[in-house]
Amino acid sequence: MSDKAPTSPVSRERSREIKRLSVILAARQARRLSRVDLAEMTGLSAATVTALVRELVAEGYLIERGPGAPTTGRPREMLEFNPRAELVAAVSLEPPRISCEIADSEGAVIAHRVARLGANVVETVCEFVLDLVGDNLPSLRGVAIAVPGVSTNGAVRLAPSVGLVEAWPIGESVQRRLGVPVVVDNDVNLMAAGECVAGAGADVANLLLIHVAEGIGAGLVLDGKVRRGASGAAGEVGFLPLGGTTERRYSGVGDFEARWSVNAIAERVVALNPGRRPESPVRELSRLAATSAPAREYLDEVLGAWAGLILSCACVVDPGLVLLSGAAAELDDAALDQLQTLVSARTPAPTEVRRATLGDQAVLHGAISYALSAAVPRPSLP
Amino acid sequence: MSDKAPTSPVSRERSREIKRLSVILAARQARRLSRVDLAEMTGLSAATVTALVRELVAEGYLIERGPGAPTTGRPREMLEFNPRAELVAAVSLEPPRISCEIADSEGAVIAHRVARLGANVVETVCEFVLDLVGDNLPSLRGVAIAVPGVSTNGAVRLAPSVGLVEAWPIGESVQRRLGVPVVVDNDVNLMAAGECVAGAGADVANLLLIHVAEGIGAGLVLDGKVRRGASGAAGEVGFLPLGGTTERRYSGVGDFEARWSVNAIAERVVALNPGRRPESPVRELSRLAATSAPAREYLDEVLGAWAGLILSCACVVDPGLVLLSGAAAELDDAALDQLQTLVSARTPAPTEVRRATLGDQAVLHGAISYALSAAVPRPSLP
DNA sequence: ACGCTTTCTTCCTAGTGTGAAAAAAATGAG
DNA sequence: CTCATTTTTTTCACACTAGGAAGAAAGCGT
């Protein structure tokens, strides 16, 4: 439990900042609230809250919304957190294209743009962000960049498709250029964060999101934060040794994902029902299973494999909630029930399986939560 | 990421307390240090440090140790953290017996006692602790109780052997009786915490400790803290579905641990080398493998199974470091190398396998770190 | 002995949160 | 309509804290 406290824990200014932050955070949580509420939530005295609120209103963080709740006594002056006071940029690098969105702290997208990814990634990102925020630059609190498969130490692992060799320099470079905090992370991690703050996992502090696409990856949230592991490889569940005892060496793509990701399933579906490769192989398989016995059988196989995957994760980290994302979210209700049954039968702790609900928006919401928490660095209290 | 801030984040007194704590923590880390060091570490000014140190010396937390480091200028007055100023009690409930140790914050055991576990657990624990601390009661900062297999919500899972039905009430009851914070946790979790602060994982913030005994359990430390999962079942790796596709239902003991824990190995070792069941089956197996081909073969099997276990964990959480504890720590160097090779060949991220170093002391050190951090509740900053 | 350097201490000041009191803003009874 | 009542918001003086500056202390080298 290595703790270092190189910087001041409680200097004068720091303390003041902490106070401000606690008010801002409280306000961000509750949509509308009065000074009294604020005082209760933060534990500060009414006098202090008054002073702070005046300051924050002047700065545009809070807006006065007139009296509310007609009750006996002086009515409370309602305050509202101004979501536009804090903007974040969410940049998503997907193999051939880049998408950039500017959102306020509630997730409302203010501006967005998609384009082909040019040669110089850093240049493109900065240009996009600056262009999209425009005059609101002072409100920009942070930038989150989603990359397919990046590890903390900088090596890009599962992303041979992206043309960038070094991922870490991106974060630093952009940070230097834009002057706001930048975080770079795996897209699946961002999805997990997104579902946790604004999606199917908004009510829990632990979850595991399994994203099935060309590969299979997972994002892990424990105790309210995304956990990346020692070298950022947490959630590389595609490499789980579940398919018997194949003694293959590490080769960039995992045994498990080689057999049970979308590509493999699509092939099999085409074999079962010749024709063009379907847009959504899993949905197609669910459909076929209703009438075709072989399809039914194969679906059972897939569910069995995925159940094994979920079970493995549940035994190691006990997430309590498992969210299915990507192709796995295409399962119909019957299949989902079956999967839940398979899992429940063998887990040592209760584990619920749900579909992720945010879809493409998951990365955006994750990026927002990242950027906001990066913008508001918790004081490094030991 | 559910955050609630019901209590005061930065009231006046709280701020002062935080300051004090940061000094205490800094002092606890560095064994000997001067006021200047302290000022640098905490970021406080020299004036503030002087005042605080005077206070802490008066209270017995710090001791003055005369001048040190003869250098140009006035020599620094060295201070030393007084480990005796903070005592903790580590109670370990093992099936037929209870062991209780009083230790200072450095892990030095001041008093200890072992006895058979009587009928009333709470009574016994309180009596033991009170008796052992004696006059030092005011210095007692916390109590940590290690139970074989307890989950956060109170249900005892893997501990049919212990005669206690409810584990949670223990914590609360003892806390009420002794008036100090009490934490109750799985013994394997405590071992992991212990190895992380004072053992083989002292230099890292992420690790997984695998303890092989009658069952197989793991303790997970991510980002410097023990992670228990949603219902305290993280680390139940005995239930991993690695042994092919046995479709057994949940039955209190996992498929994997049924095949690869000490009991199973001991049986096989007896079969290979008839006689009494050896004290340390794994060590015995390592020995036999040097001369007997069947033993060699079986050892390979065991290592393969354990490698699969480690691999599964590595793929899910990427601990970076895996510590072997219990019977698994009895592997000789050759076997350990072999295991490391098996693991490295297939993990997506570098994963080192070591032996745990603290042995029986691991639980104690874990309990100390628990008790100390429970005694010093971090301010609930959102 | 005399500077010199570094550490520790003392004193004063600026700045902060809080409690109490005052002001403000509505309601409802007479 | 007026006035007591209730609740929220604001103001103000106070107690307290951290930090800066200056001074005292304690050794070292010449």
Description:
The structure is a homodimer of 382-residue chains. With 382 residues, chain A is an alpha/beta fold. Chain A has twelve helices and 13 strands. The longest helix of chain A has 25 residues, at 293-317. Chains A and B meet through helix 1, helix 6, strand 10 and helix 10 of A and helix 1, helix 6, strand 10 and helix 10 of B. Chain A binds a DNA duplex (30 and 30 nucleotides) through helix 1 and helix 3.
Q: What is the compact description of this entry?
A:
The structure is a homodimer of 382-residue chains. Chain A has helices spanning 12-29, 35-42, 46-59, 121-133, 168-178, 187-198, 255-260, 262-272, 281-289, 293-317, 333-346, 361-375; strands at 32-33, 62-67, 77-81, 87-94, 97-104, 109-116, 140-147, 182-186, 207-212, 216-222, 225-226, 321-326, 352-355.
How are the SSEs ordered, and which strands pair?
2 copies of one chain form a homodimer.
Chain A: H1 12-29, E1 32-33, H2 35-42, H3 46-59, E2 62-67, E3 77-81, E4 87-94, E5 97-104, E6 109-116, H4 121-133, E7 140-147, H5 168-178, E8 182-186, H6 187-198, E9 207-212, E10 216-222, E11 225-226, H7 255-260, H8 262-272, H9 281-289, H10 293-317, E12 321-326, H11 333-346, E13 352-355, H12 361-375
Parallel strand pairs in A: 4-7, 7-8, 9-12, 12-13
Antiparallel strand pairs in A: 1-3, 2-3, 4-5, 5-6, 9-10, 10-11
Helix pairs in contact in A: 2-3, 4-5, 6-12, 8-9, 9-10, 10-11
The first copy, chain A, binds a DNA duplex (30 and 30 nucleotides) through helix 1 and helix 3.
